[in-house]
Specification:
The chain has about 100 residues and is mainly alpha-helical. Helices cover about 80% and strands about 0% of the residues. It folds into 2 domains: about 55 residues, no CATH class; about 45 residues, no CATH class. The chain has 6 helices and no strands.
C-alpha cells in the first residue's frame, strides 16, 4: 500500500511539474489532479485490493457475520434497537413493522 501511495504522489508531482505554467486556469484545475489520479489507480486495483483485504481480515469478517446473524435471528426489532442504543425519538413503532412483514 505504501508503494501505491508513493506512486500516486509521484504521478501528482509529475503532473504539477509538467502542467503548472503559473496561469490561473491551470492552477485551478491542478487541485483536482490528486483525486483524479487516486480514482484512476484505485479503480484499476479495486478487485485485487478487495480480495487481499478479504483474505487479511477473514477472521474478523466471520466474527462480524456470525454476530450479525445472531442479532437478526434471536432478537426482536425493539431489542435490536436497544442493543444498538438507538435513542427513543428514532425508534419505530414495532407493531407497524410486524404488519408490513406479516
Amino acid at each position: 500500500m505504501n508503494k501505491v501511495n508513493k506512486f500516486m504522489n509521484d504521478c501528482v508531482s509529475t503532473f504539477h511539474s509538467y502542467y503548472n505554467f503559473g496561469n490561473n486556469i491551470t492552477e485551478k484545475k491542478l487541485k483536482f489532479c490528486k483525486p483524479a489520479v487516486e480514482k484512476f489507480i484505485f479503480t484499476k486495483l479495486d478487485n485485487s485490493l478487495y480480495k487481499l483485504y478479504l483474505r487479511k481480515f477473514k477472521k474478523e469478517n466471520s466474527k462480524f457475520i456470525a454476530k450479525q446473524t445472531k442479532i437478526k435471528n434471536e432478537l426482536t426489532i425493539l431489542n435490536i434497537m436497544d442493543y444498538l442504543e438507538v435513542i427513543m425519538i428514532f425508534k419505530i413503532d414495532t407493531r407497524e413493522v410486524q404488519r408490513t412483514r406479516g
